[in-house]
Amino acid sequence: MASYGLLKKMCAIQAPSGAETPMTNFILDYINLNMQFWEVQPKLYCGDDFHDCIVMVFGKPRTAIYAHLDSIGFMVRYGNQLVRIGGPVFETGFTLVGSDSKGEIECTLHVDEDNHLTYEFTREIETGTLLTFKPNWEEDDDNVQCCYMDNRLGVYNALKVAEKLQDGMIVFSCWEETGGGSVEFLAKFMYEKYHVKQALISDITWVTDGVLAGGGCVISLRDRDIPRRSYVNRIIQLLNQHQLAFQLEVESSGGSDGNIIHRTPYPIDWCFIGAPELNVHSPTERVHKSDIQSMIEIYHVLMKEL
C-alpha cells in the first residue's frame, strides 16, 4: 500500500500565491536528500533568476511536467477585513491559520450577507498577513482528505515520477492560483534552452456528473482553453495501448499553467492530466487513492514514450 506521508507534510505547508518560498525550500531539501536514489540525477535550476520556481532536467528532455507550488488563501486588509488570494471557498466558521510579528494566529472566518469576509480573533492582525486553511488530514482505505490537495498532489505526482524519469523536465511554477506570472519565463527557458515543445500539466481537477471519484486520472479535452487535439489524441492513443484507465473531461471554464503556456509566443503543446477531487478549494479537498495511483502510472508512461 502506498504511503502518503510526503503528501501530508506538503498539505500542511503555508504557501499561497506570492509566498511560495516555504514550499520551494521544502522541495529543494527533498530533492537534495532523495535524488541520489533516483535512476537519473537531474540538473537543477533555481535561485534568483527563477524566483521561487524550480526546474529539473533529466537526460535529453522531450516533455515537461508543470506543477504549481502555490495555493489559494487569504490576506489581511485593514481592521478585520480579509481579501481572497485566488478563489477559495468561504464559509463562516472555517478555521484560518498564519502568523505575524506578534505571534501565531488561529482565527475564524466570518462571511456576512453581502459576502464581505472578516476574521474573528482576540486581537487585530497585522495588515498583509497571510492566512490559509488549518490543515486536518484524514485518510481511510480509499481516500485522502485535506486542504491544498490542489496542488500539493500535483507536486507529489511529479516527485514520484522523478524517481524513474530518464529523459524529461519537471517544472515547479508559482502564482498559478492568481493567473500566472512565472510560466511565461519558464516556458521561454524550456523552449529556448532545451527546445522542449511538449508539456503535461500535473494539477487537480474536480469530480462532476461526467467525472467520477475512483474512475481513473482525467485527461482534459478543454477547460476555458482548448489544447491542440492532435497532441491530446497522441496521449489517448498511448494510454489505450498500455490499457491504462482514464476519464475524459470537457468543461467551459477553469484553468491551469496550461492556459498560460497557451498564450506564450512558443509552439508548445500542453494537456492537463490530473486526478479529480471533491470539495475543490475548500478545507476538505478529497481524492480517491486509486486516482492518485492512476495519475502516477499515466505520467510514467507518457514521460517515457510521448
Characteristics:
8-stranded mixed β-sheet, Aminopeptidase, globular, alpha+beta, Elongation Factor Tu (Ef-tu), domain 3, 6-stranded antiparallel β-sheet, 2 domains, 306 residues
Kindly describe this structure:
The chain is an alpha+beta fold and 306 residues long. It folds into two domains: 5-71 and 138-305, Aminopeptidase; 73-133, Elongation Factor Tu (Ef-tu), domain 3 (Beta Barrel). Helices cover 27% and strands 29% of the residues. It has helices at 5-11, 21-34, 149-162, 183-194, 229-241, 257-262, 289-305, and strands at 43-45, 54-58, 63-68, 73-76, 82-85, 95-100, 103-111, 117-120, 130-133, 138-139, 143-146, 168-173, 198-202, 205-206, 217-222, 246-250, 269-274, 276-278, 285-288. The strands form three sheets. Strands 1-2-12-3-13-17-15-16 form an eight-stranded mixed sheet, with helices on both faces. Helix 1 (5-11) packs across helix 3 (149-162) and helix 3 (149-162) packs across helix 7 (289-305). The longest helix is centred in the C-terminal third of the chain and has 17 residues, at 289-305. The radius of gyration is 19 Å and the shape is globular. The two termini are 28 Å apart. The relative contact order is 0.18. The mean pLDDT is 97.
Quick summary:
This protein has helices spanning 5-11, 21-34, 149-162, 183-194, 229-241, 257-262, 289-305; strands at 43-45, 54-58, 63-68, 73-76, 82-85, 95-100, 103-111, 117-120, 130-133, 138-139, 143-146, 168-173, 198-202, 205-206, 217-222, 246-250, 269-274, 276-278, 285-288. With 306 residues, the chain is an alpha+beta fold.
